């Protein structure tokens, strides 16, 4: 679960994101981050289900990484944070170190399409990257039976194709939650 230091860093990063959005900073230069309410929810979810093997696809500059690393710390698990932008990942690493969470995060810099095939038995995955990659990355996951996949921006970006795809999976149960920008939570078959 998140503590006050975690929440303060999340608020700092979120304020910058909001400022960049309002200043119309070019999209490629913006720090794209998970909404604070979604971070709070995902941290509680990861802790609550005891997910020891967590994957964050699109860690950006760190809100999701803080939330999931805090959960990993609580349950003595590990977060693998994937990011393709070196500058964003470097900032996340500094923030995580400042918060004393470095031991719970394994950073991987690069294209998730090349990294995901190497990862096995994920218990909780967050997909928060380029929207056109959601379905492809979901299909590349090697999940433990009963794992949960959370996808962000479902409502804000109208990701109905992703929702239809995950809901068509045999044995999967999926629901859209109006938290933050909209989260789709999918529990895969046991």
Give the key terms:
190 residues, Rossmann fold, 7-stranded mixed β-sheet, alpha/beta, globular, 41% helix
Describe this structure in words.
- The chain has 190 residues and is α/β, with parallel strands linked by helices.
- It has one domain: Rossmann fold (3-Layer(aba) Sandwich), CATH 3.40.50.150.
- 41% of the residues lie in helices and 22% in strands.
- It contains seven helices and seven strands.
- The protein has a seven-stranded mixed beta sheet with strand order 3-2-1-4-5-7-6, sandwiched between helices.
- β4 (122-127), α6 (134-140) and β5 form a beta-alpha-beta unit.
- α1 (4-22) runs antiparallel to α3 and α2 (36-49) runs parallel beside α3 (63-75).
- The longest helix has 19 residues, at 4-22.
- The radius of gyration is 15 Å and the shape is globular.
- The mean pLDDT is 95.
List the helices and strands and how they pair.
Elements: H1 4-22, H2 36-49, E1 53-57, H3 63-75, E2 78-83, H4 86-98, E3 105-109, H5 112-115, E4 122-127, H6 134-140, E5 143-151, H7 160-167, E6 173-177, E7 183-187
Parallel strand pairs: 1-2, 1-4, 2-3, 4-5
Antiparallel strand pairs: 5-7, 6-7
Helix pairs in contact: 1-3, 2-3
